[in-house]
Amino acid sequence: MTVEALEKLTDGARAYLVPVGAVWGTLHGFSSGIPGLSFPSFRLIVREGAKIQLDHTVPADSLASALAPLPEAVRSLAEAQLERYAAPRPPMALPGRDAPLGFSRPLVMGVLNVTPDSFSDGGKFLDTDAAIRRARQMRAEGADIIDIGGESTRPGATPVWEGEEAERIVPVIEALAADGIPLSVDTRHSTVMTKAVDAGAHIINDVSALTYDGDSMSAAVATDAPIILMHSQGTPKTMQDAPDYDNVVLDVYDYLEDRIEACTAAGIDRSRLIVDPGIGFGKRVVQDNLALMNGLAFFHSLGCPVLLGASRKRFIGAITGVEEAAERMPGSLAAVLKGVEQGVQIVRVHDVVETVQAVRLSQAMHDAAMMGAGG
């Protein structure tokens, strides 16, 4: 891009620094805030509207000279991303719980669907006692967090009355809170958020990033709970009708950045926020989901812990030919390890015991790499 073209960029242009490769162990290039993880180079992308004006790969040690010619407003966006890449992710306070949520290793979040129609295990844990038993089993298997949902958000799902949603999950949360288990509530309804946190839930996981319910932002502010902001295009009923993006990785990034700004403007500190690119939620089944899987490291530049929820998703079946969601555990593990390799802090899964083993081994290899080739 010529100097003349750079000078014509407007203040609406946006710069992005997307890591190319992720290396564990001895420093290779740019050191991230995740201990042991570095990025040897970046794609420097400048986008104005839907048009990519600049896209080239820059070694990490040449970033300063590569950014220097950019207009100040554009350059400052990239520099802010670098600052957030480098910042550590401190432990996250959980309301009503003395021990914070730490991110020194990847955390495993076990899925508990107290629903009749979830895509993978609908109906299995609709009974309160069965749900409680399953949660305790996942905790015994090594789950760090249990994510409890009372409304299916699978593609094509019909909305559930929030009173019924609360009736399904509140008794489960109350029982598990007494056990001291870190709990997340998977809901997009403000009244359910409030009831769940009052019952003992510690985290709010909203697939709409606090946009579906007009009162959800104020409810989230009032709880002091960490919030998981997920990207989705459309609602569960419509999201797979015709998902469309100019550039799925950049578009999802922009959306999450905007939602973070909305939250901080409302009084939610960035330190309470977790981001989730929303694998399978309003995405073209293979093309978009694979692009996001390969671009997970980029989302660290939002300055929040990153959650990956790819477990048993349809893109795994589309690639492997496995139609039954419950039979997609091997593919789910491959997705988890792809995320862990890129430094994601939380993986949301159905198959807890298998995931815990895979994540522990991956973490041990990363730790060994940090000690050097000779151990």
Gist?
The chain is an alpha/beta fold and 375 residues long. The protein has helices at 3-7, 63-67, 72-86, 128-141, 162-177, 190-199, 216-223, 248-266, 287-294, 314-320, 329-341, 352-371, and strands at 14-20, 23-24, 30-31, 37-39, 41-48, 51-59, 107-113, 145-149, 183-186, 203-206, 227-230, 273-276, 307-308, 346-349.
Structure description:
With 375 residues, this protein is α/β, with parallel strands linked by helices. It folds into two domains: 3-86, no CATH class; 107-371, Dihydropteroate synthase-like (TIM Barrel). The protein has twelve helices and 14 strands. The protein has helices spanning 3-7, 63-67, 72-86, 128-141, 162-177, 190-199, 216-223, 248-266, 287-294, 314-320, 329-341, 352-371; strands at residues 14-20, 23-24, 30-31, 37-39, 41-48, 51-59, 107-113, 145-149, 183-186, 203-206, 227-230, 273-276, 307-308, 346-349. The strands form three sheets. The protein has an eight-stranded parallel beta sheet with strand order 12-11-10-9-8-7-14-13. Strands 1-5-6 form a three-stranded antiparallel beta sheet. A three-stranded antiparallel beta sheet has the order 2-4-3. α4 crosses α5, α6 runs parallel beside α7 (216-223) and α11 (329-341) runs parallel beside α12.
